[in-house]
């Protein structure tokens, strides 16, 4: 991000996945604050995405640390629905800015009525809670359109572009 800013580009936010172990057992707020200061990176360019392991994480701790990260200006998210097992109880407890709906659900929305129904319900639930939805694993334009029409806010996947190296991204982004 600092490289992009120094090159005169307007950076796009970067999502960083963090495990529940890293989140619970490290001074994550202090680490993020120190990194932002060290590299002089605007906090609003960082999205921390907690990979949900609902059985092992303290919801009160998540809320406390999420609020402290938000105070720094960092956006926070929980990847609730990309794992095969998840809990709406954990969805209820955390105060996430984004909800990530995993590719295991979004991949089948065109072929599987159950996946479509669950995905629409999750999007609707997120909308009612005022949370932004991100669909992972978007493979093609038809799937992207279906998700958009279902009310999904954002998408990730090869439909939008393959993963590329930083140098290639810099060239393409200019």
Question: What structural class do helix, strand and pairing data support?
Answer: alpha/beta
* Distinct helical segment count: 9
Low-confidence stretches: none
What is the rounded Rg?
17 Å
What is the helix fraction of residues, given as a range?
40-55%
Q: What composes the largest sheet?
A: 6 strands, parallel
Instruction: Identify the strand order in the major beta sheet.
Output: 1-2-3-4-5-6
Mean pLDDT: 83
End-to-end distance: 14 Å
Please, could you describe this protein's structure?
By secondary structure, the protein is α/β, with parallel strands linked by helices. It contains 9 helices and 6 strands. The chain has helices at residues 2-6, 20-25, 28-39, 59-72, 88-93, 103-106, 113-129, 141-149, 166-173, and strands at residues 14-18, 46-51, 75-81, 98-101, 132-135, 154-155. Helix 3 (28-39) packs parallel to helix 4 (59-72). The longest helix has 17 residues, at 113-129. The radius of gyration is 17 Å and the shape is globular. The two termini are 14 Å apart.
What keywords describe this structure?
174 residues, alpha/beta, 6-stranded parallel sheet, 9 helices, globular
Summed up, what is this model?
Helices cover 47% and strands 16% of the residues. By secondary structure, it is of the alpha/beta class.
List the helices and strands and how they pair.
Elements: H1 2-6, E1 14-18, H2 20-25, H3 28-39, E2 46-51, H4 59-72, E3 75-81, H5 88-93, E4 98-101, H6 103-106, H7 113-129, E5 132-135, H8 141-149, E6 154-155, H9 166-173
Parallel strand pairs: 1-2, 2-3, 3-4, 4-5, 5-6
Helix pairs in contact: 3-4
